[in-house]
Design goal:
This protein has about 130 residues and is mostly beta strands. The relative contact order is 0.27. About 10% of the residues lie in helices and about 45% in strands.
Length: about 130
């Protein structure tokens, strides 16, 4: 299987390429009031509205080191759309079947934690909103 690899919260993370819609840059993120700190806002990209989160902050780390208009990994699955701001994009690599394991090893020997968009969405939906 092919996996899109990136870094966030000092971890190497991967998402299966079937969920990757695009990698966007130079897009203005519209802030949303009373949202959790990891929720950066919304973007409108090619007719679709995406929630944008800072993955490092969501996973308990620091906010992304990227300021201004960072690269945003756009995910689409089912009717859901989500944008992830990583610290660093590594690229696409082929990995062996993981047999249900959340941790895999790439050909380069990099230990990568696979994350599913549904898991990210679930974590995000359980965060408190408002003051």
């Amino acid at each position: 299987m092919e996996c899109f690899i990136f870094e966030a919260a000092e971890k190497c993370l991967g998402v299966e390429t079937e969920y990757i819609y695009r990698i966007a840059d130079d897009i203005q993120i519209i802030p949303v009031p009373l949202a959790p700190p990891c929720y950066r806002g919304l973007i409108y990209f090619r007719g679709d509205l995406f929630d944008v989160i800072d993955l490092g902050s969501l996973m308990g780390g620091e906010r992304s080191l990227l300021n201004g208009k960072p690269y945003i990994i756009l995910l689409k699955w089912g009717q859901r759309k989500l944008g992830l701001i990583p610290d660093k994009i590594i690229g696409i690599t082929r990995i062996e079947e993981n047999n249900g394991s959340q941790t895999v090893f790439t050909e380069e020997g990099r230990t990568t934690e696979l994350i599913m968009p549904e898991k990210i969405w679930k974590i995000l939906s359980e965060l408190p909103y408002g003051p």
